[in-house]
Design a protein that fits this description.
This protein is an all-alpha fold. It has 10 helices and no strands. Helix 6 packs antiparallel against helix 7 (198-224).
């Protein structure tokens, strides 16, 4: 099925992708702090995803587009026009939010972000070249390869600039989350084409993610015991609403940008927001200010280079 929605100007789509990154960074800090306060990152992730699911359910039931999208989803699944793997994007979302709850309170938003950058860069290049995203096969031009390489340079700067050693698993989890995010964005974009609205694609994401996190949180409680008392600060429960916003936006924009450009532009938003958050609220294992500033400059260059159309001029 082809998407008949009008094409957005590139600068509009990339601005939206940067906003996704800002919201992702803020959500990471919120969920990380909730995990610290509860002393259980998986329960914090379930609270975040569960609140997002509640918001989406109400919106989907209230809006005609949501009801139509859910009807298309139900008929598509029943008639096997929507395969099961298109319903699995929520597993990647669950991994991302769980990683936030487990690691961000210790390593900070910046170090979490650069771990995600590495995973997104590698995964998005592969997915675009394979034609997995809703835009089909996206050519791996020199600019896109160089942009991805610069993003990895930003990762290296961040890792060498950290001031405190952290366990290896805290660095590997963000990388795995980044791989999942790129796949999630492509999968949600394809599901959006089938159901006609990013609202329903986002709802499916939150249903699947909430189910995964409910199982993991139950295991965590069975092994480690009940979490600490729920904190009373209202802002600690905004992670789900932010997740709804950026996953919805990602599903809407990926068809206009491709997986790699969406990921790279969102990285810029994440890095700027994470710098501000870590400066105002430092984490024990965060990178130094100098490393963070250099990393942001390199990541910004990666987006610019990847966005440049590397085409040879035709001879007149």
């Amino acid at each position: 099925m082809h998407d008949d929605a009008p094409r957005l100007p590139v600068w509009v789509a990339l601005t939206g992708a940067v906003l996704i990154g800002v919201m992702t960074a803020v959500q990471a800090r919120i969920n990380g702090q909730l995990g610290v306060r509860l002393e259980d990152g998986l329960v914090a992730a379930l609270i975040s995803f569960g609140s997002g699911l509640l918001i989406l359910t109400v919106i989907s039931a209230a809006l005609p587009a949501g009801r139509r999208g859910f009807a298309r989803l139900a008929s598509g699944v029943r008639e096997r026009r929507i395969p099961f793997w298109m319903l699995c994007g929520g597993a990647a979302g669950a991994l991302t939010v769980a990683t936030q709850g487990l690691a961000v309170g210790i390593i900070g938003v910046s170090l979490f972000t650069v771990g995600v950058v590495a995973g997104q860069t590698v995964s998005a290049l592969v997915l675009d070249r394979a034609g997995y995203g809703p835009s089909g096969v996206v050519a791996v031009t020199p600019g896109r390869v160089l942009g991805g390489a610069l993003a990895l340079v930003a990762v290296a700067i961040a890792l060498t600039g950290r001031t405190v050693e952290v366990p290896l698993w805290m660095l590997l989890l963000p990388f795995a989350a980044g791989v999942g995010i790129a796949w999630q964005q492509a999968t949600n974009g394809r599901l959006r084409q089938r159901v006609g609205t990013p609202l329903t694609a986002t709802l499916v994401n939150f249903i699947g993610g909430s189910l995964c996190l409910a199982v993991l949180a139950a295991v965590s409680i069975a092994v480690s015991g009940a979490p600490a008392a729920l904190p009373t600060d209202p802002w600690l429960y905004l992670g789900g609403a932010l997740g709804v916003a950026y996953i919805f936006l990602g599903a809407a924009l990926v068809v206009h940008t491709g997986v790699l450009l969406l990921g790279l532009a969102s990285v810029v938003g994440q890095l700027f927001a994470s710098l501000a958050l870590d400066a105002a609220w430092p984490a024990p294992a965060g990178p130094s200010l100098a490393a963070s500033l250099t990393m942001i400059g390199v990541a910004l260059a990666s987006v610019v280079v990847a966005a440049v159309p590397w085409r040879r001029r035709r001879a007149r």
